[in-house]
Design brief:
3 domains; Arc Repressor Mutant, subunit A; transcription; Homeodomain-like_sf; Jelly Rolls; 23% strand; four-stranded antiparallel sheet; 43% helix; DNA-binding; HTH_AraC; 274 residues; alpha+beta
């Protein structure tokens, strides 16, 4: 469970660290942090207010919806840009995670520390969920791989030629298909395929056009739709298909089909009516 630490009217909520990734959500009325530096990437999104910080000898303002990317070992501070205060979410990612994905290429550097690039907005969406959300192992691994590639693309770092292992990707696909209604660990998939998680993620995208976790989620949604058409409740369909709960399922359903499960079911039944 996230911990909420109050400092007068300011607060910070922290999720339990997971696989070298830390996540926080915070609100500050005025001064937040003095000049400091991390040995990780600090990547976040401003949710409300003006988030002001000094970075690489210049003052930066991040507005709601902006993505912040602070490079490891770069000095920065933090404070509100207006009297209303500011709210934000941030993840701290060890550079080794990105390096495992990028395979020896230079670490991406995003000039200015604040960006409106839609590629980074999309790539950070999953990782910057509320700190109370618990990631499945495959889900976090896929999200980190997507973020690493997006950072490299925005920074102008060329991609290496794709060299995939088709047999490993096929074994992973078969394994995920057979086990889609439960949490699948990274160790399981690595043992099943003989490939490390980052190489396998690239294999899967090369040969199946999507990530392992996305494939797993789609198979769960297939089950949900079948169950709904046979009269199962939303809650039962969600848990039987392997989702954490109904809201977890609904979020993925809406993102995938553009409809809530209830509306989809009404339309599907209407189409099937005589």
């Amino acid at each position: 469970m996230p911990r909420k630490a109050a400092v007068s009217s300011d607060w910070v909520m922290r999720a339990a660290p997971s696989e070298g990734v830390e996540r926080i959500e915070a609100w500050f009325r005025d001064k937040a942090y003095a000049m400091h530096r991390h040995d990780t990437y600090a990547i976040g999104r401003t949710l409300a207010g003006v988030q002001r910080f000094n970075y690489r000898r210049s003052q930066r303002d991040s507005l709601p919806g902006n993505t912040m990317v602070l490079h490891p070992d770069e000095l920065h501070d933090g404070q509100a840009g207006t009297s209303e205060g500011f709210r934000y979410r941030m993840i701290y990612v060890e550079p080794a995670h990105f390096q495992d994905v990028l395979g020896g290429r230079a670490l991406p550097f995003i000039e200015g520390g604040v960006t409106t690039d839609p590629r980074l907005a999309a790539a950070t969406e999953s990782l910057l969920q509320h700190v109370g959300y618990t990631f499945e192992p495959l889900e976090q691994s896929d999200a980190l791989a997507e973020l690493a590639h997006a950072l490299a693309d925005v920074a102008g770092i060329s991609r290496l030629p794709e060299k995939g292992d088709y047999l490993a990707a096929r074994r992973a696909r078969d394994y995920l298909h057979a086990n889609c209604t439960r949490v699948v660990t990274l160790d399981e998939v690595e043992a099943e395929t003989g490939r490390d998680r980052w190489s396998l993620s690239n294999d899967f995208r090369t040969f199946y056009g999507t990530s392992p976790y996305r494939y797993l989620t789609m198979r769960r949604l297939d089950i949900v739709r079948r169950m709904l058409l046979t009269g199962a409740s939303l809650a039962t369909a969600a848990t039987d298909a392997g989702f954490a709960d109904q809201s977890h399922m609904t979020r993925h359903f809406l993102k995938t089909f553009g409809l809530t499960p209830g509306r989809w079911l009404r339309i599907a039944r209407g189409m099937n009516a005589p």
